[in-house]
Specification:
Largest sheet: 2 strands, antiparallel
Number of strands: 4
Structural class: alpha+beta
Oligomer: single chain
Radius of gyration: 10 Å
Strand content: 15-25%
Helix content: 40-55%
Distance between the termini: 19 Å
Strand order of the largest sheet: 1-2
Length: 60
């Protein structure tokens, strides 16, 4: 599933992780593929699998 990078950044900021949010802005493309970029999303502290279950990006 493709999502906008800003969605990732916002999820991290709203979860109280501003450092990871800035890192996400630096390393992710404008469009994020939650399958292709799953490992990177996990390293940023997100659970890409929660999106596939119909929810938003969950914090890990």
């Amino acid at each position: 599933m493709l999502i906008d990078r800003e969605h990732v950044v916002q999820a991290l900021r709203s979860g109280g992780r501003p450092e990871q949010a800035e890192r996400a802005r630096e390393v992710l493309g404008v469009q994020v593929d939650t399958v292709r970029d799953a490992d990177l999303l996990r390293r940023l502290g997100l659970d890409p699998d929660s999106r596939a279950q119909g929810g938003g990006l969950g914090l890990r």
